[in-house]
Design a protein that fits this description.
- By secondary structure, this protein is of the alpha/beta class.
- It has 3 domains: 50 residues, no CATH class; 235 residues, Aspartate Aminotransferase, domain 2; 120 residues, Alpha-Beta Complex (Aspartate Aminotransferase, domain 1).
- The chain contains 19 helices and 14 strands.
- The strands form 3 sheets. It has a 7-stranded mixed sheet with strand order 3-9-8-7-6-4-5, with helices on both faces. A 5-stranded mixed sheet has the order 2-10-11-14-13.
- Helix 11 links the parallel strand 7 and strand 8.
- The chain is globular.
- The protein starts with 10 loop residues before the first helix and ends in a 6-residue tail after the last helix.
- The relative contact order is 0.13.
Length: 454
């Protein structure tokens, strides 16, 4: 019998195959070589035929050099934090690609000298929010607040209502964030009620700023009271309003969400927010305000550590200066059109999966507008599809509800429906008998009790 080791193709011969040469150019030679060595071991163990070596290597290589996997967001949550929050618009994606090489991010093509970094992005933000003297961009919303408090109140006091000392994602707490700046927290009022008089009594020579934080990820109802920005602006100390969501102007869909323009008009000296939430752009922290206060932040040494890269600047400018972002379109999606799309997809899948169209309440997500439901519809499949679709290609992330896997099309483009259908069919093929039993049980209930299916 021939020794299996003699049948193993040589490493150099495998790596010289044109298909693997191309793969090495996309993924790196080290990754391709590691896959080759793994396949060679399978051949030695008698688990793979030698003539299947190249095909097996290709099958086990990733699609891209990054380990991040694109997914179809069928959860109905527009700003799904675990799925990367805002989806970039096509112009923003194009801007990132154009910015991937060398460009004039800090270079004046007219004079040949150094220029203000990201000036085009800052100009676009200032044009969109004329209530602000100027703007500044850092790497996320928490960084914007961190820089503001550090520059205005390090070694001094930050006056803030007890009801606004919030916890944000992944266990990060606002009091701990503020304390890292070297500022001292001066709590005023109570959890549910804080008045202007509470702030006024606390303001003094040691006050660096008053901080007003929008509690975007929870609500307190009942016996409550708070001081608004217009009231706090009368205290004659720097007022920082952290609105969180990145809403630049009022939106009738989100009546309880503060916006940058309104906050500045009410008297805030600085307004901080995120770029990857309701603004619909890349992850960034945005700071709008008076020229004097923004300049103090810009000149602070911490600003250099928190600045954004050229890709973020490019995507942000395209997001604010371009057409409506996917975030805006998904939030304002017409429920009638959503139902029509769901009916079309369900009709295609019904024979194989028993797909049904059911009401589905979408959500803003990203810590914004808690409790607000976005009316819509979804394609309902048996619960087992949720796991199977996470392993399909493309990956589809749905929502489990009442023992069913719901595929909400709110955050999918119509052009992606075909890919969604293909993924569901892949999953149905893998689930096989399990889906057949589910459909049989459903048919049995319908025959024995016509009302059971409803």
């Amino acid at each position: 019998m021939t020794d299996p080791r003699r049948l193993v193709p040589r490493t150099d011969l495998l790596l010289s195959d044109p298909r693997l040469v191309e793969a090495a150019g996309r993924l790196g030679s080290a990754r391709v070589k590691a896959a080759v060595l793994a396949v060679q071991q399978l051949i030695r163990d008698g688990k793979l035929a030698p003539d299947q070596a190249v095909a097996s290597v290709l099958a086990n290589l990733p699609d891209a050099a990054s380990s991040l996997t694109p997914v179809l967001n069928a959860t109905g949550v527009v700003l799904h934090t675990n799925l990367g929050r805002a989806r970039l618009s096509p112009p923003a994606v194009d801007a990132v690609q154009r910015a991937s090489g060398y460009l004039d991010v800090e270079f004046d093509l007219g004079t040949g000298r150094r220029a203000r970094r990201g000036r085009g992005t800052l100009h676009a933000l200032e044009q969109l929010v004329p209530a602000a003297d100027t703007a500044l961009v850092v790497n996320n919303g928490a960084a914007a607040l961190l820089l503001a408090v550090t520059a205005l109140a390090a070694g001094r006091e930050v006056v803030i209502s007890r009801g606004e000392l919030v916890e944000i994602g992944d266990g990060f707490r606002l009091p701990e964030l503020i304390e890292t700046t070297g500022a001292r927290i001066r709590e005023v009022g109570t959890t549910n009620r804080t008045s202007l008089a509470d702030y006024a009594a606390a303001v003094g020579p040691q006050t660096g700023c008053v901080l007003k934080v929008h509690p975007s990820n929870f609500r307190i109802d009942g016996f409550t009271a708070g001081a608004g920005i217009a009231e706090l602006a009368t205290l004659d100390v720097p007022l920082v309003a952290d609105i969180g969501s990145g809403l630049l102007h009022p939106d009738v869909l989100l009546p309880d969400e503060p916006d940058v323009t309104g906050s500045l008009a009410a008297g805030a000296g600085l307004v901080t927010c995120s770029g990857d939430k309701l603004l619909g752009g890349p992850q960034a922290g945005l700071i709008f305000g008076t020229a004097e206060l923004v300049e103090r932040l810009r000149r602070h040494p911490l600003a250099r550590a928190l600045r954004v890269d050229k890709l973020t600047l490019a995507a942000l400018e395209a997001s604010v200066a371009g057409p409506a972002t996917p975030t805006a379109r998904y939030l304002h999606a017409d429920p009638v059109l959503l139902r029509q799309r769901c009916e079309r997809v369900a009709a295609t899948l019904r024979a194989d999966t028993g797909a049904e169209v059911v009401p589905s309440a979408g959500a803003v997500g990203g810590g914004g507008a808690p409790g607000l439901e976005l009316p819509g519809w979804a394609v309902a499949l048996p619960e087992a599809f949720a796991d199977a679709l996470r392993h399909s290609r493309p990956v589809v992330i749905g929502r489990l509800e009442h023992g069913r896997c719901l595929l909400d099309l709110r955050c999918l483009e119509e052009a992606e429906e075909a890919a969604l259908v293909d993924a569901v069919r892949q999953a149905a093929s893998k689930l096989g008998e399990q889906i057949g039993r589910t459909l049989g049980e459903r048919a049995g209930r319908t025959v024995s009790d016509p009302g059971a299916a409803g």
